[in-house]
User: Fold these one by one.
Assistant:
Number 1:
Amino acid sequence: KVGLYTCGPTVYDYAHLGNFRAYVFEDLLRRYLEYKGYRVTQVMNITDVDDKTIKGAKEKGVALAQYTKKYEDAFFEDIKTLNIKKANYYPKATGHIQEMVNLIKRLLEKNYAYTKDGSIYFSVKKFPAYGKLSGVDLSQMKEGERADFDEYQKEDIKDFCLWKKAKEGEPSWETEIGQGRPGWHIECSAMSMKYLGESFDLHTGGADNIFPHHENEIAQSQAATGKQFVKFWLHCAYLLVNNEKMAKSKGNFYTLRDLLEKGYSPITIRYLLLSTHYRAPLNFNFEGLAQGRATVDRIGDFYSRLNWMTKQGKFKGYNRILSDKVTKTKKDFEESLDDDLNISAALASLFGLIKETNIALEGRNLNKKNIDEVLQTLKEFDKVLGFLGFEGVYRRKKTKEDEETLEIFKLIAQRDEARRKKEFKKADEIRKKLLKKGIVLEDTKEGVRWKRK
């Protein structure tokens, strides 16, 4: 069993690519744990009350619940589009006010929290381990300073707000600790512990969550319970756009919907977000997206070749070398992901198998059992990767490109037959016909290889 808490969306706007970089990484983590036989309970929060959501609702002149529902619905549509598995629980902050109040009461009773001007703050100096996760220096904190905003910088260590006193025009709740609303940080502690217990296995998020959010979660949770809050923390690095931080002011801010409107497929976007190791910055650009699309298209061509070869039924016999390659690929794939989710090495093993199978296909040096072994392996890998098309979400409809690819295979087969019959003029005519279609043939000892010009 594994308990996994993933920081979810703050539903004040459409989620952007940086958010989805984190959500796809977390999806890979969960899928691989399940692939290895673990039963995962995943909790992802929905922050539907905080500084940002309240500001957005005010600007639109609508109730908070009405404002956040639009973006909450959009979030669920988007994760379905990207084939991200649904978490077991999606607790909303507004539905867990009492759990937050109970946790704050424990902190007040243990003297880790104090009241000032109607709000309640966590006393950072009373938790000596503060800074262990983020590396901040507690000695630099100025006495008596408090943070009323949810987000602030490492250089600005302050006592953080657990409960914010009610303000006119803002949503609030009448509770035994006074009328007000929760601070952002207490929300995740209360909700994660409700569904996963006071101590659980894994907590993930983006690098921007490390301070102050996750540092504050640790402090308030462990101060309240006296137990280790989380055993392992995993954070994904930032997503950059052309090596710059994504920002609306720079014109390089993209949501999933922006890319879909530009004609990019969900499978291409998922592949791009998945293909860089989670702790390495992902530099997004449209050249990389085009390369991702080409990779996905090659996988589609590969499936077409396998299906065509199966229908042809002209095999040379079982290929033991290819079978051994399948076994080695499985081993390499798992060893790579066992090594801190080394996705680059895992994908390299997958593409190596595709390459070796293509060589066998070109020489017809395999049989249906080989093809079934390869397809079964890819099907197992897709339980982890989620972009190979076996889960139904991305199952490709037959396109013009598919028909063209099948026509290429037929012409290559006809040329092979002509060469075997020593009808070299006919074989040369077929080569020229393919060249006019932009297809270059290369005769090798393993068989005929082809590529697009």
Number 2:
Amino acid sequence: MDREDVLPTPPTGTPLPTVVGERYRLDRSLGNGGMGEVFEATDLTLHRSVAVKLMSPSLVQDEPARARFLREARALAQVNSPNVVAVYDAGEDAERPYLVMELVEGTTLERELVRSGRVGPARAVAIATDIASGLAAAHERGIVHRDVKPSNVFLTPSDAAKIGDFGIARLERPDATLTLTGQTFGSPPYMAPEQATGGKVDARADLYSLGCVLFQMLVGRRPFSGDDAVSLVYQHVHSTPPRVDRLVPAVRAELGALVASLMAKDPDDRPASAEEVRRALESVPTEPIAPPTTTATAVLPRRALELGQRRKPWWPVAAVILGAVALLPLLVALIAGGNPGPASSPTQQASTTPSSLASSSSPSGAPPQTPEAAGAALLASTQQLQDAGAIDHKLASDIEHAVDEVLNGHGHGHEGDAGNTLNDLKEKIAEAVDHGTLSAANGRRLTDGIDRLEQTLNSEGD
């Protein structure tokens, strides 16, 4: 029941039936995949909505494909779990196999991630726990899904997760070793190394894929990115992604360790079973860790932190100098034996100088004086807007990357490049305001922050 990647149904030359199996009325298409098309339908006997998958006419005469299609029905029929899409019926209509399944109301995890970017630790763990529970039920019946990915995870209105589309599932029995020559099983962004290299695949391959999905929920991107399947497969086999708790400070170390263990290259280094993963997820702490200083620290690029640590605050030195200058007339008057007068009395000097210094030079109230401080302030504003749902995830990511690029390039002769980067960023913000995805007030707030960052860069370049 993969409703993602909905494609227009190509002309087949074979008219679609109105009623399948003399019982299921086809109401509307939900999507068209490699094995067939999925419809929302009505069960005319029980008067309920169902999902009906009709095998593609081009595959009807392909015996291995027919066997694979019917295997999905048998695989699902064996699994009884609230976290697996239920199968109700299967059969053939005019020699065309069909499968009748539970119609899941709600959305898919893939659509949710496109909408929100990433999921908070508590909700991500809850969804992953449901996925692990469904996989445990399937694995108990000897069924390996082999294609666990966000588009195959359905989220109900109550936010429960259900696994669907067992079309390439494998039954781990000697009499059920169906393969399709020349076809690749699984989805490269979530594929276990042993699956990608044609090795022996067992239930632990599903756990690797679950680790990839959990990584994406927590971080907001897939573990690996590439221009093609070959690049992705190479990275799954040879590269280790960073731990999620290092990428997202709010994620606890225990959860980061669990994700890392799920994505271990060697299946023997992964948890032994989906049930073990389910229990681990139920016990892992999900309360966010408070950042050590401010929100800006959590999102500030590493170079900015390093540079900021090397710089000493300027305002204590300024306070000492101003204080010395303010006391100089009094000192001269005392030496000369004269009266400094009421206009320059020590009391008045003491009451005016510190207050003006606090209002104009206080580190908490003054505008940022360094690129690092200005970058931190801009990132803090962006994070606050993102937490409030007031900014598009992509725009927020563009701001973070631009600040990182500017700060990493600062001091290496890239002032012109920095100016171009910040101007491009302001144009993106203006477009977001024009399109209504960002309010005008928040747009000005971000643009002001970019201007301050640019001013500090120019000041240091003088």
Number 3:
Amino acid sequence: MPVSAEMHREIVGQVFARVPDLTTLTLGAIPRPLGSTLDHVFGIGEKLVLIFQRGGQLFGTASLLLPASQPPVPDALLDLAANLVSAALGRHRAERRVAESEARFRTIFDAVSDAIFVHDAATGAILDANERATEMFGHPADDLRRLGIGPLSAGADGYTLENGLARLQAAAGGPPQLFSWHCRHRDGRLFWAEVHMRRASLGGVRTVLVVVRDRTARVEEELARARADDEANHASRLESIGRLAGGVAHDFNNLLTAIIGNVELVCEDLGPLHPAYDRLRDVLKAADTAASLTTELLAFGRRQMILPRIVDPNTVVEAAARLLARLIGENIQLVVTAAPEVWRVRVDPMQFQQVIVNLATNARDAMASGGRLTIGTANVVLDDIFVRGHEGISPGRYVRVTVSDTGQGMPADVLPHVFEPFFTTKTLGKGTGLGLATVYGAVRQNGGIVDVESAVGQGTTVKVYLPAVT
């Protein structure tokens, strides 16, 4: 039955109404004469309207035409029927509103660019997760609810299930939590995320809302910047040490030249039969040793005279390998893996060969019980990302010379110091600490860089990058 605004005001609060004729029932659509005729023809008796409303909200109405032969319907029965239907319609409308609200919430929940988890505040279990969470961690939503936060965490260094639950409990009973977390993807890949936790009550259940934002790119950028800063500081420190060492070595070399020259003249004047001759020869040997040290210091300080020319790196490596075959000992296997058609480089070939010999000698000393020494060459193109972490080079074509061993390796705290002059991990009397310092100075003097990778028990790999001739 259609309801006019006037009738709506009249029926508010009612559950049924008895209507006198069809004209009233149809709001005038059926004229009275026609209505009387229809009553007579169809034997229509009582005309009723059931009004379905709840809390002042009208859901609708239903018209009932009863036969004239039927006795009037009791008011109580009409009241009961109208109230039952009104209650059912009210529930249906409320359920529909809830469903629509949940659909809107789910749409927004799944459209957010961050991963969102809903955790039970008491147990830490995952109650719900959005689509971004399934994409970020690689697990379907059902698996996320079943797995919990343990498999989603890196699992070490403070990023374990226990650490995660402690964070959840802190958020459930206190202020919001904001922190970085090391996460694990389903494929095993680790990544960094920014996590925000806040307690909330959803449907009467105490929960913790967790928002996870992937910040891998930002962390990698920060790490690259930190590495670049460390590299720049390290290079600056070595540069300062190099200038100091080179200056001292230059002056000291001049003094040695005078000492050696005069001692040699005295030896010639006295002759080998003089009682002091042997002692003077010992002085010469000591002075020659000192001169060798100053030569290495000059190389580190990049003040050594060099004669650079365009060379084939493989030719230099092969010449060094022939020399090393007699130096490294029978218990060490020497393997040379020279790349074919390696690019040419502009270096002092003798200085380049000395770099390889120094690196190989260090590798030999790290393999007291024997092992494998590998020397290789390769063409590489260094991009902006690599260059940002290394001071003093530009992107482009380089030749990489790699010297690796299977020796004892070095701890992480030693690596930043390996190029410093007189720094050594060898026992007293086993080395001067100038081998790698000389390598560093020589490579830098020829426009290249040196990288060292090492771990205790896993050997050491030194990579020398020299700019290719274009």
